[in-house]
Amino acid sequence: MIRGLYTAASGMMAQVIRQETIGNNLANSDTVGFKQDLTLLQTGMERDVVRIPQKRLQQRNLIGSLDLGVLVNQQHTSFAQGPLQETGQALDLAIAGNGFFTVETPEGIRYTRNGAFNLDAERFLVTAEGYRVLGILGPVQLPEGEVQITPQGQILVDGQVIDTLRLVDFADLNQLQKVGSGLWTTEQEEIAFNGQVQQGYLEGANVQPAEEMARMVAVLRLYETNQRVLQAHDQLTGKIVNEIGT
Amino acid sequence: MLRGISNAASALKAQQLKLDITANNVANLNSTAFKKKEVQFKDLLYQDIAKRGNAVLPGTEKPVTAGTGTAMSAIRTDTRDGLLQTTGRELDFAIIGPGYFCVLMPDGTEAYTRAGEFQRDREGYLVTPQGYRVQFPQLPAEEQELRISEDGIITATTPTGEVTILGQVMLAYFNNPAGLVHLGGNLYAASPASGAPQIAQPGPHTRIKQFALESANVDLVSEMTNMILSQRNFSLNARALQTLDEMLQTANNIRR
Lengths: 246, 256
What we know:
A: alpha+beta, seven-stranded antiparallel beta sheet, three-stranded antiparallel beta sheet, 24% helix, 34% strand, elongated, B: alpha+beta, five-stranded antiparallel beta sheet
């Protein structure tokens, strides 16, 4: 009886986490290069239900199993392509297809899909946070002139090849860990990039507002349902306490 | 639960800021050489939710994290040239390509501007509409015709046809003009982000044009689109906030 109370509560708590994720997706629906998350749930706290035989207490007589709640399995990031938005700025880059830009942060190398780059005071190519963007030869420093970036990431200034952007991809995108500011980290080996860089474009967030709204409705109702279940347990317990034996 | 509320609140704040920037761009549609601004957002840190006491499947390969909303990462200045507007006024100058006119501020510091709507002061110096002196050679008497070549050489022609070369206009160049600090009144100041000014003649990428002004580089259509987007984004996040509110209410009603 009381077990059920906690099962319903775990259901409510899981919906809160789902709502937090939806809220974070919606909050970042205007963040360049953002990839939406999906909270995956799983039945959890599985227990065997055992009938206790009358004679031989040592023998386990299995009836079946009972799940006593729900657990968060993982935050699954969807790496689906976001919409490419034209900005016309020479240092705005978007990746069409899979792959990441590589940036140098004080914590080490990080990967990003946010290609809204600028120049710093020393003409290094930097992200909005000021982290330097890496090319094959190291941080990219641009001389004055007209910048052109080819779909393969080659950087040309006034027709002269300067460097090639260090564009990478990974075998298992599920292993990538978000660290905020549009950056990812992973221990995996980098593999060859086969996307395309589009100059003068930015990749918008791949959040689908309609999908998130639908999910939000489901979350709210599931939360209420679990609350009802909890209340039913409460009422049942109330009846036992107050009505049986009066 | 309260995490989700602050996620939504961060987005409401962010969209409000975006709307402010859009409003400022539209308001400066007719400001000479105004450079439009654009706000960029980022996602914030991700928290390990198992550490926050949530029920998470044990032994997952990577920590299960939840995002903490959004924040502004940068307000970018679009330093692209605005359209040229021919005014026919002798003391109107526009810069095509990178570069800034240098202006001496009353406190002795230097400011930079691309709005070349200058006037002549009592002593024959060029001044900005605020009355700050532009780094420009002293001009001769009024009746002489003033001409400036595309590479910045100033000449004066008397009514009798005598030509004198007055000097050369030098412009300030920056490694990162988007990093200049906006002082208002079309004036900018150098900052650590922009780098120190490099004073040079109008170079291979830059030309000066007399009798013209640079208009604002604001594009009304994209500003309107941005406004609609912020408005919709705002309502979307307000809805997320409302849903959380209803969930809290449901939790409050467990025991009546």
